[in-house]
# Entry
Amino acid sequence: MARTASAAATSDRRPSLVDDAYAAMKEAIRESTFAPGYQASAQEIALRLGMSRTPVHEASLKLQEEGLVRIVPKRGIVICALAPDDIREIYDVIVAIEGRAAELVAALPAADREAIADALAASTADMETAFAAGDLTAWGQADAAFHRVLIEGARNGRITRIVQTINDQMHRARMLTLRLRGELPQSIADHGLIVGAIRTGDPAAAHAAARSHRLRTQRELIPLLEKLGLKHL
Amino acid sequence: MARTASAAATSDRRPSLVDDAYAAMKEAIRESTFAPGYQASAQEIALRLGMSRTPVHEASLKLQEEGLVRIVPKRGIVICALAPDDIREIYDVIVAIEGRAAELVAALPAADREAIADALAASTADMETAFAAGDLTAWGQADAAFHRVLIEGARNGRITRIVQTINDQMHRARMLTLRLRGELPQSIADHGLIVGAIRTGDPAAAHAAARSHRLRTQRELIPLLEKLGLKHL
DNA sequence: TGATATCAACTTCCATGGAAGATGCAATGG
DNA sequence: CCATTGCATCTTCCATGGAAGTTGATATCA
# Structure
């Protein structure tokens, strides 16, 4: 299974303390154990994780590189918040990258792209089931699986990595907005269009379908966040 | 204006030793002072830069994050080479990102996009002049300026950052292929199309023009590298 | 002569201590 | 009572030393 590049650099050997600290801190941020704006110190985190400050410091540098935290000299490590403008930026990247990924997948040899189309169709079916059952968590997981298969199908490590980084940042926004959006059925229809274009091997159609899917989500999400008066999350 | 996380961390205060080491190492890689495959040790670089091993180590972690070097656990720091397949990956990202950037610029208010169109037209004119004079270095600089203005015009810190990272990786390939490519006049014509679409405010046309410009370069560059038998550079 | 085993010389990784600096609180002066 | 100054505390940043591990050469034996 493909991992992020940082993980890939260490994938063939046992995880170092830096990797442990990185994973633990990222998990804490994802699950909001460290809320946005929370200010920690390397010393405190090191104590909690049972290691010294050095690996914690290096891990926080990596997290800063990914935009999840900010290291303020002489102050500490602060967890970054996401403003609506950040969401706009992120979606502009996703629109571009995922559109291209869908195009590349649709240009694959027939056998390859049909296998991917099958996997995508399965995830879409899972979304329908979850929607019918009103299970938003399952819906979110199936949706994530769909987009992961789509991205990895493009077989481009840099694309995979960019999307991985962005997904880490988006995770909190996703969780929050999942239960506020009303256009879930539309997403299922969008996914169907993408799958169809990939199955028939029509790169231009796949590109357009993936683009408009993300553009629509962006157009719905940002006003929603602004209406809620969420200056950050 | 929002900056990237790493730039923000270093933009408003004097550069730390880590930043010095980072800049020095990146420059050395760009200018091939450290050739691909070259294997250094943190101790040696630290000695050369007049600092201790810690800032060198942290800088090399950042460079590893950007894919410029690889830290092999008990061996040393090796400078990454670029295979033709890396070039393919990079161009797939550029095609997607720069196409979207052009689209976003063309959707700006008239005054903004005209100012950007003027700057882009100026760079294109510089390219014509340099081409007529046979000055490949000036041509490359003007070309780089064009694409930089285009990307920064999109006003998206994440897009800027992604392209910056990719350009760092591409620099050696650019320098090498600049004097091997025969389609320089076509690039000038492509740029003219992009500028025109931005000036008239036609996002779809700008998107298509920027896309096909990069797609054409990709289609010409990869066979060129493979024909030369360059397994890495 | 060729193959193997041992060792010495490197490397990164991590812990820890000192230095420089920012912040917030307390004490003091108006 | 409020403002200001000084100090104690806490932070990151960087240097350095020890530990673990890999590599390549050298010496030894069949």
Summary: The CA atoms of residues 21 and 56 of chain A lie 6 Å apart. Chain A has two domains: 5-79, 84-170+178-227. Chain A touches chain B through 34 residues (CB under 8 Å). The beta strands of chain A are 39-40, 69-72, 76-79.
